Hints:
Helix content of chain B: 55-70%
Order of helices and strands of chain B: HHEEHHHHHHHHHHHHHHHHHHEHEEHH
Strand content of chain B: under 5%
Number of helices of chain A: 11
Shape of chain A: globular
Strand order of the largest sheet of chain B: 1-2
Radius of gyration of chain A: 19 Å
Structural class of chain B: mainly alpha
Oligomer: heterodimer
Amino acid sequence: xxxxxxxxxxxxxxxxxxxxxxxxxxxxxxxxxxxxxxxxxxxxxxxxxxxxxxxxxxxxxxxxxxxxxxxxxxxxxxxxxxxxxxxxxxxxxxxxxxxxxxxxxxxxxxxxxxxxxxxxxxxxxxxxxxxxxxxxxxxxxxxxxxxxxxxxxxxxxxxxxxxxxxxxxxxxxxxxxxxxxxxxxxxxxxxxxxxxxxxxxxxxxxxxxxxxxxxxxxxxxxxxxxxxxxxxxxxxxxxxxxxxxxxxxxxxxxxxxxxxxxxxxxxxxxxxxxxxxxxxxxxxxxxxxxxxxxxxxxxxxxxxxxxxxxxxxxx
Amino acid sequence: xxxxxxxxxxxxxxxxxxxxxxxxxxxxxxxxxxxxxxxxxxxxxxxxxxxxxxxxxxxxxxxxxxxxxxxxxxxxxxxxxxxxxxxxxxxxxxxxxxxxxxxxxxxxxxxxxxxxxxxxxxxxxxxxxxxxxxxxxxxxxxxxxxxxxxxxxxxxxxxxxxxxxxxxxxxxxxxxxxxxxxxxxxxxxxxxxxxxxxxxxxxxxxxxxxxxxxxxxxxxxxxxxxxxxxxxxxxxxxxxxxxxxxxxxxxxxxxxxxxxxxxxxxxxxxxxxxxxxxxxxxxxxxxxxxxxxxxxxxxxxxxxxxxxxxxxxxxxxxxxxxxxxxxxxxxxxxxxxxxxxxxxxxxxxxxxxxxxxxxxxxxxxxxxxxxxxxxxxxxxxxxxxxxxxxxxxxxxxxxxxxxxxxxxxxxxxxxxxxxxxxxxxxxxxxxxxxxxxxxxxxxxxxxxxxxxxxxxxxxxxxxxxxxxxxxxxxxxxxxxxxxxxxxxxxxxxxxxxxxxxxxxxxxxxxxxxxxxxxxxxxxxxxxxxxxxxxxxxxxxxxxxxxxxxxxxxxxxxxxxxxxxxxxxxxxxxxxxxxxxxxxxxxxxxxxxxxxxxxxxxxxxxxxxxxxxxxxxxxxxxxxxxxxxxxxxxxxxxxxxxxxxxxxxxxxxxxxxxxxxx
Lengths: 315, 661
């Protein structure tokens, strides 16, 4: 593990932590434009975080230590996930510590703890949210894994760094399997990030919500950590999508010039991705909760089809 | 002393400890204070012996026991040593726990005897080297565990569970006996040595494999021979449930590996497809049913079916690779299988013991009357949390490592020479991924409903934490779970003698430091749990410190918010049924759901819903009816008059005379 690599890794992590709320703000901005509303401003998520950090924490009487530690755990998990996904450069030190399967495991770990925290106080909404979140999870997680498997089969490696190298620096070729995987991945990321049509991040109508119901009991700095973690999750999923389907311009190794050149590319790709997300959200209606398994089941089947297509046509 | 002698001595010591229990039946405290700790010490010693035996050449011994011309052969090789290590390690933790748990239990002396006989017979199954000794030890294991399962035989449903258990155990035993019959191929020599040397004809070998899969599968609980498992495991006292689930199911896996990879030696690739299909079906079935259970021990029992399913799937993958002559990949799949055996043994015994402590403290097994126990029983709760994270297959604990290895084995599969099998692999990998994700769902349900939330019953306020012995057992098992998760290279080093023995290859990836787990080719995949944990802890600690340093740490306690709704009862939380509802809806065809909902104006509304196992109605009940019909036909012969019976004997005599003439 060389020093330059570690420095590049640290830069990537810090960039993710700082940029994540901006991405959330950008998606909200685009949504507002599309809805003909005036937007709260790009920096609104930062203001919300600052406000929440300053507020006092109100804990329920029967909140256990698990409830108090969970926000930090979740934040740590997603920060690590952001460090693992190659955003600016491949071949960084942490890439060897965790591969695509470990990344999925890490996201599952974060979900596991946020669901437990939702059940901790024992309110109706908390357990309802936890149950729904786990329901979304048990279909979305294998679908995501299958998408990553398709990419792993193409590049003969489950290491994210090698996948990006293989996909980004190949001869131009059309992979039908990646088309299926792309659709599946989009559906999974919508569900996992509590977006329309599965969940609505802007609502506080109890009966329709998943993520918001689960974190209803959090306040103050704990809520800030959770909100920040949610932004990070959106950032991580966007970066996974960019790494798999648009891996162009990502630098190799701790090459500083490459990283500096990769940064504007990343920003542009993220901006376009965020706008596309807002567009998808605008064009779809929220589903009833029991339609969500059908939606995610479709994503899962598409992901498995992607693997089959790879084995059949490209193998 | 060669390891085989030491192992036999340890088994003998367990039997002696058990006999002491019967010798002093009047003082159950003696059993708790002296005998169970002694059993735990023997377990630790056995684990040490097995660890030494793992790296030594096989040692054998002929015991002067058994029938006059048929002495018992015992032999300890790497495969036996690995399973003995598992037995010893788990037995140490469970026995320490039992010394607290069994104190003051009724009929303690007999339970102590059966418990130690059970342990000893499992050890003997693992070292048996001829079919005769194997079957004797196998039956001793079945019978001693039967008596443990039916300890509370005054309850009708426990008697029923015991009956079902012994019935299926014997169907399995017959199948295993026939399998050995097929393996000796007419030579009449039943020692494993001879079977190993013999190259069985393909037809006989296939027959032996199928019989072994059915016979050992009945003990392991693979679908459709699983029905005894969710009945018998909850019926037994918790330490016994832990042993049944953690170790006894593994002896069946040991039997499969021994017969297929050692005694037959050269598997055919399509055996692997069968095992893979059966394993994945069991895994999915088990976890779906675990999600809808309302009894915490039944939930864990169904989750055992799931884990055994994953193990059998890994075994199938091993056979597939071995059948195609891809030794290195077979070694990878075998490593994943054995690693998962080890992991499941530790986290499942940990969880069963945790339910034992909960049962001890509250007298309640139904999830619908538990809740909030993290406040009353913090030790049990935190240990159980480690177990649930491990069993849900989450990094950085041990369940993830074996899942990772298994998925890696799937990722390597597309090189198989058979096109159709290549097509099956994505589907199989998807099934494994779905199972893993569902196990996370089930474990959130288990932990969340038992330990978090508000207590669902007022009596839970009196619940007390586990005693010191129980705590010690839980902490030991949790520590092993963590260690197995963080040091995969050490564990894989332990498995190398076995993969070398059975497949001829080892998987240790060269070229990376000891930190990284990188099977076969380091470039393809690597995972480092220690680095993973270190960076994650660093980030978590940094986040905490930064928040602490820059912001005030004020916190206030208030009633729960719940969107401003002030009346919050414990019954407003999700019940166990409610938490299982999404799985019930998504996988509806898997269940046979019966229920009644009240009419809108019912003054006394009652809700009832049950989700039952279709196999019971499709397979077992028709079989039972068929058996009854056949026996009814036979009862025509029973007239109850002596003259009729005399006539039967006379007629038989005449017929025999006719033939002999």
